[in-house]
Write a structure and sequence with these properties.
single chain; alpha+beta; 2 domains; six-stranded antiparallel β-sheet
Length: 456
């Protein structure tokens, strides 16, 4: 019997221990657990000056709340029944963490884009976060309950079908599979109908992707001494504009850049050495990442018209593995390299001393033709199509861990799994809406700060 067949049968046997239907259960929280208090606890190791900004962003909508509350969902998933079939999980696979970027070969690809929480975990954790985020977007967009349920079902079915397909592929075929925007996702073959493939190509391929040069034009100001990073608080703030007590330091960024070279392959080191550091600024992006230390770094190559930017981002322990004592930056980089078909050529990591003590950081390109889909503006049909594309790349990312046959054995034809995750998505959507309302009330009552930026 082949290795794949043995794994498939082991996955099938797993159904007897953990029926697929139990994955739809939403475990009750322990008595007395207050989601707002739990979120405040999560700010203790973050930069205090950014707490108010984080809560302000989370207050904007249930989707924004979900994005910033990965810890809450990780707690809830850990207390619920689990398949036990582990993969390298993204850990935060909501719909806003998929997007378009340029591969090292300069093709535009669609993939998972955020790996701050990546860690080994049961495969369904990522699927649950994806479909819950779809249900929350549908709620925020005013879609009907029937439309929301239909798009979740299609997304879960796509994951099941994709995983079954990857289980039948050779290891290298899976490893090199990408969702290529330029050739309208030809890798999907007959997986989608021609009409669905056209819809996906129109939806994702039609996103406005600014060139790196245009992105830098938005980021850079010309000064008498040459190009410098502009200031656009709270997103980008010049270090000179920060309060003396703020933790951002140019020397921290410089130390990371010096040390992180050792985590790159030799040709990337040679290329990086051809650039000169021009400027460093504090960078605050996203929702869940707010409160971590981050930098934008501007470099110049041949001359000051040949600009290149890197992002330095603090890495923390994953919410999926809070007891993991490995280096957080190394974890993020290893997880991204395993899950992404075309990881950033300049992705690396390094530890450095900061005013807050030793911290781990990872480094990647700040802009490389990146773009995301504005899911809040999609119709139910468009959102359903987008969810299927996300499910395909998520299944591919999971299959790269080498466990596709066991997962397919467990999923079977997928009906029970589809039903279970559809029920879970609806239940967790309702919990998210309630948690968001609790945060809004807490902010109104002054229990959480909601204002400010890095320089305030």
């Amino acid at each position: 019997m082949s290795v794949a067949r043995i794994a498939h049968e082991a996955g099938r046997a797993r159904r007897q221990e953990v029926p697929r239907s139990v994955l739809g259960a939403l475990a009750p929280r322990p008595e007395g657990v207050d989601p707002v208090v739990r979120l405040r606890e999560d700010t203790t190791e973050r930069i205090p000056e950014l707490a108010a900004l984080r809560f302000a962003r989370m207050r904007q909508s249930p989707l924004a709340f979900l994005r910033g509350a990965a810890l809450l969902m990780a707690d809830d998933l850990a207390s619920a029944p689990s398949s036990g079939l582990r993969v390298q999980a993204a850990g935060d696979a909501h719909v806003k963490n998929f997007g378009i970027f340029a591969s090292p070969e300069r093709r535009l690809v669609f993939d998972v884009t955020d790996f701050d929480e990546t860690a080994p975990a049961p495969f369904e954790f990522d699927v649950k976060r994806l479909v819950t985020s779809l249900a929350v977007v549908a709620h925020d967009n005013g879609a009907s309950a029937d439309a929301s349920e239909a798009m979740v079902r299609r997304t879960v079915r796509e994951y099941v079908r994709a995983m079954e397909r990857f289980a039948g592929w050779g290891r290298l075929e899976v490893w090199y599979a990408t969702l290529d925007v330029a050739d309208a996702f030809a890798e999907l073959g007959g997986f989608f109908t021609d009409a669905a493939r056209r819809d996906i190509a129109d939806l994702i391929g039609g996103v406005s992707v600014k060139s790196t040069r245009r992105r830098y034009a938005d980021l850079v100001d010309e000064s008498a001494s040459g190009p410098l990073l502009g200031s656009d608080p709270p997103r980008v703030t010049r270090l000179d504009d920060l309060a003396p007590s703020a933790p951002w330091r140019r020397e921290t960024a410089e130390a990371v850049l010096r040390g992180y070279r050792s985590t790159l392959v030799s040709d990337r080191c040679a290329l990086l050495d051809q650039f000169e550091l021009l400027d460093v600024a504090a960078l605050v992006v996203g929702v869940g990442s707010v409160g971590t230390e981050g930098y934008a770094v501007l470099l110049a190559g041949r001359d000051e018209s040949d600009l290149f930017a890197l992002q330095i981002k603090e890495a923390r322990r994953s919410v999926l593995a809070p007891a993991d004592d490995s280096d957080p930056g190394a974890r993020v980089v290893a997880g991204q390299r395993l899950m992404q078909a075309t990881p950033d050529a300049f992705l690396g990591w390094q530890r450095a001393s900061t005013p807050r003590g030793p911290r781990s950081f990872y480094v990647r390109q700040l802009y490389d033709r990146k773009a995301s889909v504005d899911v809040e503006r999609l119709s139910p049909d468009q959102l359903s199509t987008y969810g299927r594309a996300c499910a395909w790349v998520l299944a591919r990312a999971h299959a790269r861990s080498g466990n596709a046959a066991a997962i397919t054995g467990y999923l079977g034809h997928g009906g029970s799994f589809v039903d279970a995750l559809t029920a879970f998505a609806a239940a967790y959507r309702d919990r998210t809406v309630a948690d968001h309302a609790a945060l809004v009330a807490a902010a109104a009552a002054g229990r959480v700060p909601v204002l400010g930026g890095p320089g305030s």
